Amino acid sequence: MADQIDQANDLNEQHLERSLRAARQPIAVGVPGECDNCGDDSPRLVGGRCARCRDGRPR
Ligand SMILES: [Zn+2]
């Protein structure tokens, strides 16, 4: 039982660390340009993809 709790705590810490690292990525702020996925012009691309493609919404 204690082992499972320890493992869960480890997972939580890893996840938190990844989230914090991701939040520090300056590129995640978004840049204007053409979406790598659908080719649409977007005022805010993140990772080269527009908001629609990131959300997985249909066009
Ligand atoms: Zn797109």
Overview of the molecule:
It is a single chain. By secondary structure, the chain is an alpha+beta fold. The chain has one domain (4-55). The chain has helices at 2-24, 51-55; strands at residues 31-34, 41-45. Strands 1-2 form a two-stranded antiparallel sheet. A hairpin with a 6-residue loop joins strand 1 and strand 2. The mean pLDDT is 83. The protein binds zinc ion.
Provide a brief overview of the structure.
Helix content is 47%, strand content 15%. It has 59 residues and is an alpha+beta fold. It has one domain (4-55).
List descriptors.
two-stranded antiparallel ribbon, alpha+beta, 2 strands, 59 residues, 2 helices, binds zinc ion
Strand content: 15-25%
List the domain count as a whole number: 1
Euclidean distance between termini CA atoms: 48 Å
What class do helices, strands and sheet pairing give?
Answer: alpha+beta
* Ligands, ions, cofactors: zinc ion
In DSSP terms, counting alpha (H) and pi (I) runs of 4 or more, how many helices?
Answer: 2
- In this structure, how is the largest beta sheet organized? 2 strands, antiparallel
